């Protein structure tokens, strides 16, 4: 297989608590996306985001390789075919850990990679991590890799879900102008080319891909200041307050003035050129994280539903690309199906009120093997057989060559410009109905040139909107009037804080896919309302701590008529008590560090990107 032009691999194998409420007796209907609507334990770049379609595509394509390595001719070191393995399930807590690390690396230019330092300092953070006011963040100053928190300790802090991270891969770089995000196909290709050992690890059943982007602001678009007319300036390069314009009239900085006579900030030299200083045209620094590990979550029947345009890895030497190619105006819809009882009776794409049959992507290899207990005549006696004798060799049947690892179904649609809401619906061999996502729908945006819009805020990747389902096969999944509890927020947040379960109703023999009345986590805590707004079990996290009002000074007891002045004693000092403080006493006001974003420029992409966009 041709090796694509890619960046070299980066290989790497609190006080406030809340008592969890018991799980509800009724069964809740999960979103079946495997991710949260909000971030759980951190804030900053990448927080409060659901996985993008590009992150979904990356894990979908990685699972194609994992479940059907024979398509790519992948072999062991001994030259034997690699056995397929069941698809990785998406683990939201792994994605959160990856987003934290990506945001930290970009913001502080913290790239602690193998070769830069001895183990176990590979992939350290550049600060001491910990819990502050219930949130995972840096609790010490930004420092070097040698003094930061080690990788395993970072996992322990960030990965608090039903799984354990076993290894991670990081891929930093920058994108050409006009490309808002790294296509998931390239991320999957990077993983396949550089980390097959992790991709086929039997101990890893879950994974998450996360991408954090930040704009690379051109120098001419950085804040610029006129020379100060008077007063003291802060030197932009050194930060020193020694730039007296009387001695150095070319000093650029911010006029500080004095307490008695404050000076206004210096103004911009001239208006910025809108053609140069257009954020839509800036390059993007990115940081991809691939996290793998174990999980107690079962393998879903339907998962990895995506819509994309394969072809980003196509080159003149490899015109078909790693994962195929479609033309502009065409969109590939694909979904994973895992049900060992047999192939589905029906698997359809429901999109904007129309339904389309999904086709099996690739037939698993099979071979003819003898039926157990019927081997025919003894093979050792074959030489003594009469040539005219009817040689019955026994019965044979077709069986898979490799263990069952699930099936991939796909369908290519020619689409005009617009936003398309879709979901997948399957009826298994025993008549049970499944859908992906189980609540709401996914979205794909196509522009006027027939390209999938990688970032369209008007067409979100996931939405509560559900397309009409009249085109789907009639089933008796439920009875009219029936209801069941549902919840589309982060697993584990239901019935915590402000979050509440909703109700899903039966419509035309199917569950509607709409969760009415639910309350999902909010993106951030609302300080001062004394509520757990993001439903992680901590109230007022990352908020300034207001000290309690001092207890009022007790009044002397004047009730005894015969009490003398000498018996009145002295009133205790405000707040004093004989009892000890049994609280944790470590709540502090959060002091965040100000630091400019680092500009990550570690590699340019080759012709397989430029030919697609330029």
From TrEMBL:
Biased composition (Low complexity): 570-587
Acidic residues bias spans: 550-569
InterPro entries: Put_metal-bd
Disordered: annotated segments: 542-591
Record-linked Pfam families: Cu-binding_MopE
Record protein name field: Uncharacterized protein
Taxonomic source organism: Microvenator marinus
């Amino acid at each position: 297989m041709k090796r694509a032009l890619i960046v070299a691999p980066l290989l790497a194998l609190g006080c406030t608590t809340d008592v969890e409420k018991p799980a509800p007796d009724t069964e809740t209907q999960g979103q079946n996306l495997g991710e949260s609507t909000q971030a759980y334990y951190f804030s900053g770049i990448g927080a409060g985001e659901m996985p993008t379609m590009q992150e979904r595509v990356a894990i979908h394509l990685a699972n194609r390789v994992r479940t059907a390595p024979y398509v790519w001719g992948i072999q062991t070191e001994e030259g034997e075919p690699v056995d397929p393995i069941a698809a990785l399930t998406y683990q939201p807590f792994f994605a959160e850990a990856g987003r934290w690390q990506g945001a930290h690396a970009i913001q502080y230019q913290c790239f602690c990679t193998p070769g830069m330092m001895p183990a176990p300092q590979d992939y350290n953070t550049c600060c001491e991590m910990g819990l502050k006011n219930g949130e995972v963040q840096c609790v010490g100053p930004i420092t070097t890799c040698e003094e930061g928190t080690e990788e395993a300790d970072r996992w322990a802090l960030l990965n608090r879900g039903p799984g354990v991270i076993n290894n991670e891969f990081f891929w930093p770089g920058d994108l050409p102008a006009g490309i808002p995000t790294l296509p998931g196909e390239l991320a999957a290709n990077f993983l396949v080319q550089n980390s097959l050992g992790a991709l086929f690890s039997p101990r890893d059943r879950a994974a998450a891909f996360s991408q954090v982007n930040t704009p690379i602001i051109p120098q001419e678009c950085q804040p610029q200041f006129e020379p100060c007319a008077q007063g003291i300036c802060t030197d932009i390069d050194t930060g020193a307050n020694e730039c007296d314009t009387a001695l150095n009239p070319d000093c650029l900085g911010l006029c500080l003035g004095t307490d008695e006579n404050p000076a206004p900030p210096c103004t911009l030299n001239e208006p910025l050129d809108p053609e140069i200083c257009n954020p839509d045209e800036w390059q993007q620094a990115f940081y991809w994280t691939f996290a793998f590990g174990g999980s107690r979550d079962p393998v879903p029947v339907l998962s990895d539903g995506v819509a994309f345009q394969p072809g980003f890895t196509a080159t003149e030497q490899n015109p078909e690309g790693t994962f195929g190619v479609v033309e502009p105006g065409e969109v590939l819809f694909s979904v994973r199906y895992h049900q060992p009882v047999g192939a589905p009776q029906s698997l359809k794409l429901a999109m904007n009120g129309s339904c389309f049959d999904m086709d099996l992507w690739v037939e698993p290899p099979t071979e003819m093997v003898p039926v157990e207990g019927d081997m025919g005549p003894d093979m050792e006696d074959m030489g003594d057989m009469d040539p005219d004798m009817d040689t019955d060799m026994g019965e044979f049947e077709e069986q898979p060559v490799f263990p069952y690892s699930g099936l991939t179904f796909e369908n290519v649609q020619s689409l005009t410009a617009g936003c398309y809401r879709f979901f997948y619906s399957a009826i298994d061999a025993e008549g049970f109905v499944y859908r992906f996502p189980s609540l709401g729908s996914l979205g794909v945006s196509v522009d006027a040139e027939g390209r999938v819009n990688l970032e369209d805020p008007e067409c979100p990747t996931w939405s509560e909107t559900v397309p009409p389902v009249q085109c789907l096969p009639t089933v008796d999944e439920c009875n009219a009037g029936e209801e069941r509890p549902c919840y589309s927020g982060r697993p584990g947040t239901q019935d915590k804080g402000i979050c509440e379960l909703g109700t899903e109703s039966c419509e035309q023999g199917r569950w509607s896919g709409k969760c009415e009345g639910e309350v999902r986590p909010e993106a951030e805590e609302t300080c001062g309302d004394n509520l757990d707004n993001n439903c992680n079990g901590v109230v007022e996290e990352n908020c300034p701590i207001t000290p309690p009002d001092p207890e009022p000074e007790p009044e002397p007891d004047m009730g005894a008529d015969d009490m003398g002045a000498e018996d009145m004693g002295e009133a205790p000092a405000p707040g004093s008590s004989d009892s000890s403080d049994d609280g944790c006493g470590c709540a502090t006001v959060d002091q965040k560090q100000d630091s400019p974003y680092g500009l990550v420029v570690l590699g340019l992409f080759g012709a397989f990107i430029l030919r697609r966009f330029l």
